[in-house]
Amino acid sequence: MQTYNDYIKEIEERKALGLNPKPIDAAELTSEIIAQIKDSDNPHREDSLKFFIYNTLPGTTSAAGVKAEFLKEIIFGESVIEEITPDFAFEQLSHMKGGPSIKVLLDLVLDQKDFEIAKKAAEVLKTQVFLYEADTERLESAMKHGCPISKEIIESYAQAEFFTKLPEVDEKIDVVTYIAGIGDISTDLLSPGADAHSRSDRELHGQCIFEHNKDMQQEVLALKEQHPDKRVMLIAEKGTMGVGSSRMSGVNNVALWTGVSSSPYVPFINIAPVIAGTNGIAPIFLTTVGVTGGIGIDLKNWVTKKDADGKTVYDADGEPVLEQVYSVETGTVLTINTKEKKLYHGDVELKDISAALTPQKMEFIKAGGSYAVVFGKKLQTFACKVLGIDVPQVYAPSKEISIEGQGLTAVEKIFNKNAVGTTPGKTLHTGSNVRVEVNIVGSQDTTGLMTSQELEMMAAKVVSPIVDASYQSGCHTASVWDDKSKANIPKLMKFMNDFGLITARDPKGEYHAMTDVIHKVLNDITVDDWDIIIGGDSHTRMSKGVAFGADSGTVALALATGEATMPIPESVKVTFKGNMRSFMDFRDVVHATQQQMLKQFGGENVFQGRIIEVHIGTLTSDQAFTFTDWTAEMKAKASICISEDETLIESLEISRDRIQIMINKGMDNEKQVLQGLVDKANARITEIKTGIKPALKPDANANYYAEVVIDLDEIAEPMIADPDVNNDDPSKRYTHDTIRPLSYYGGTKQVDLGFVGSCMVHKGDMKILAQMLKNIEAQHGKVEFKAPLVVAPPTYNIVDELKEEGDWEVLQKYSGFEFDDSAPKGLARTKYENMLYLERPGCNLCMGNQEKAEPGDTVMATSTRLFQGRVVKDADGKKGESLLSSTPVVVLSTILGRTPTMAEYEAAVDGIVLTKFKPSQKELVI
Predict the structure, then answer these.
(1) Are 517 and 758 in contact (CB under 8 A)?
(2) How far apart, in whole angstroms, are the C-alpha atoms of residue 249 and residue 232?
(3) Would the pTM of this model clear 0.85, i.e. be above it?
(4) How many of the other CB atoms lie within 10 Å of CB of 707?
(5) What's the CA gap between 299 and 285, in Å, rounded?
(6) Residue 424: exposed, middle, or buried by beta-carbon count in 10 A (0-12, 13-18, 19+)?
C-alpha cells in the first residue's frame, strides 16, 4: 500500500497545481492497483479501476507489462472483474502499442486451449504495427508449424490491413486561426528551455506554452469553446513557425492544447495539431508535426511587393515591402480541403497547399503519425517475404526522380549510397522520397527523457544493429547539477546505457562524467563523409557527412529502426572568392555568408529548407563546424562540407584520436561500438590516401536550386547578428537575418555580459581568448573586466589539450571562478561580477534552461540563439538582447563594457592568427 499511498499524496500535490494524476509507468504501483481491483471490498477499488484503465502508460513501461498480464488473466477467466470484461480487456490491449501487449496477444493466439480467444486475439493483432523480430519470429515459426491463425495474421500484414482498414482522412477540416506571434516563432515560445525539466510530464509541461502567458492560453481555450467543431490553427504571422531548437515538446504542447486525443486510455498524448506560418514551418519542426500526424501549412499570406516592372519595392531602411494577399487574423474560420489540397475561406480559394498534403503526409495523418507508417511498411515487407510474394502497393509509392545526364550534388550522392528499398540501379535526384540507413544517432539530455518515453511507446528494447554508434549527452544540464537534474538524468543515462547507447554519464559511476556539447561529440564520432546522422537537436549539423536535427520521436525511430525517411532536399552551393583580412575571424565569414546571400537574392532566403553545400576545402572539421552549426540559424535543413582530401584525412585523424580517448576513459560498451568507429576511421583514411575512394565531391554537372559566391574581400570588419529588439516591425525582430558591421555601434553600445562558449566555438577560440588576455595585459599593464565574461569550453578534450599546451593556465590566471567537478553548482547563478568565469564544459547560457544573464542585459555572445528570452529575459523598461559575434569581439566587449571601435579591436587581436581559412585552389567537383 505504501507505493499507492505515495501516489495519492502526489495526486493531492498536483491538484494544487491544477494538474491531474500523473500517468503510471511503474510495475510496483500497477501491481498494488491490481490487488485493490481484485479486492471487492477495498475502499480504493473504484479509483484503482480508473487508474488501471485510463492512466497506465503503454509500450514497454514496466507498468504496461503488469497490466498486459492481468488483462490476459481476465481473458482466460482466471480473474473475473465485472467492470473489465474479456472483450474490454482485448480493447485495452489494442491500445497498448506493442511490447508486453503483443507478447500477451501472441500467447493468446498460439495457446491451443481456446479457439475463440485465439480468433479474437488475432483480430486485435491484425491492427497492430509495433512488432519486433522476437514477435515476428514467433508468428513465422507458428505458421511453419501449421498454425492457420498465424498464417491468417501474416496474410493480413502482407495486405497492410492495419493501415487500409483505418478511417479515411476527412475531406474537409475546418480550422479557426490563432496568431501566436508576429514574425518568426521559435520553439522556445511553445516549449521554453527553462521548462526542459518537465517535458516528460506532458500535462505539467503543457502549462508553459506561450512562455506561461495565461492570457494567450485563455484565448486559445475561448476559441475552442466558440468553435467546438473546429481545430485551432496556430500561426506565425509574417514569419516562420517553429524556428530554433528541435522540440517534440513544442509540438506536444500545441497538440495538447489544440489537437485530438490519440487514445481514450492514454492520457495527455494528443495528435493532429494544425500549424502554419506566412513563411511556412521550419524544416525540423515540420518533421515533428509529421510524427504526430499533424498538418503544417506554408500560408504565403504576405508577399514581397513588386513595382510595375516586377522589381522588389524597398522601404526607407532598405527592407523589402510586404503586402497582404489574404487575412488570417485570429478567429478567422478556414477550411482545409484534403482532397483538392487547397485552403479556403468560405467558398473563396486562398492557396494551393498540396505541399502540406503530399501522399506520404496524408498517410501520416491517416495513421495518426509517421511511426505507424514506418513500422507498418517494415511489417508488410516481413510478411510478404515470409509468404514469398511481392509487396502489394498499399502505401503511396516512394517518389523516384531520376534525370538522365544530370550529375549528383553531395547530398544526392549520400542518399543514393544509403538508400534502401529503391529501384535497383536507379540513380535518384532531388525530390525523390527515400528510406535511408542511419549511421550515427545522438540524443541530448533535455529531450532524452522524451526519447526514452517514445522508445517505450514503440516497444523498442535495443539500438538497431544497422546504427554504427549512438550517444546520449549530458550537456544541456551541465552547468547546474540541481535537484531536477539529479532526479532525471541518472534515470535517463541508465535507460539509454541499457538500450545500447554510449552515455555521457556512467550509470555505474566508473568513468568521469563527460558533459561535452552533443554536437561536438557527434562531430567527432562521425568518421565517414558519406554518413547520415540524426540527432535530437537542431544544431546536429556535422562537418562530415550530412546531419539532420530531429525531434525526440524521430531520434527514437532512428535508434529503434536504424532508418529515416525523407525527400532528398534541394541544395544551394556556396563557394568563396577573395582574401580575408588578417584581423577577421571565421565567424565573420559565417555571418557575411548570410548577409551576402540575402543581398544577392533580394531578401529571399534561398537557404531555408535546403541543404547548404559549402565548399570549405581547407578547414578541418572542428573549425568548419562553426559554419555548419550556424546553418540552423540560416534556416537550412542541413549542410555538407566539401573538403580537400588532405583536410579530410586530418579531420578523421583528430576524430579517431578523440574516440580513442573516450575508449581509454572506459566509455566503450560490450559491443565495442567506439572501437568499431576507430576501425572505420582508419579504413576511411586508407581509402582516401590510396585514392580508392577520395573525399566526397559533387559532380561538375550537378543541379542546384541556387549558387552563392561569398566575396571575402567585402568583409572589412567584424560582423554581428543583432536581434534588433526595437525594430518598429515586430516581424523583423529576433530573426538572425539582421547582420551588422562592428562600426554600426560606434564603439558606444553598452555590453552587460559576454559569453564565449556553446557549439559555435572550438579549441582555437579558447586559444584566441588566452592570447587576447596576454595582449591586453601587455598593452595596458593589467586585465580589468568592466562586464562579466562567462567562458564554457564545449568539451573536456579541449580543456585537457589547453592544459597540455599551457593556455588553460593563462585562463586560470585571469579568472575569478573555475568549475569544480567534485562540487558542481547546485543552483543557477543569478548575479554576475565583473570577472572571468571558467564554467564546466557544456551548453551553459546558450541553452537558457539553467543559467541566464540578468533580465534586461545586453549580452555579447558566441552562441547561436538570439531569440527573445532565450539567453536573457526582458526587464521592466528594458529589453534583454543577445548579440552574436566572434570570440575576439565578445572578449573585448567585456574588457571595455561596450562594443569596441575598429582601432581598439585591431590592437587587441594584433599578432593573433584568428583563422587560416582561404578559398580552396583545387577543383572540388568530379
Answers:
(1) yes
(2) 18
(3) yes
(4) 13
(5) 16
(6) exposed
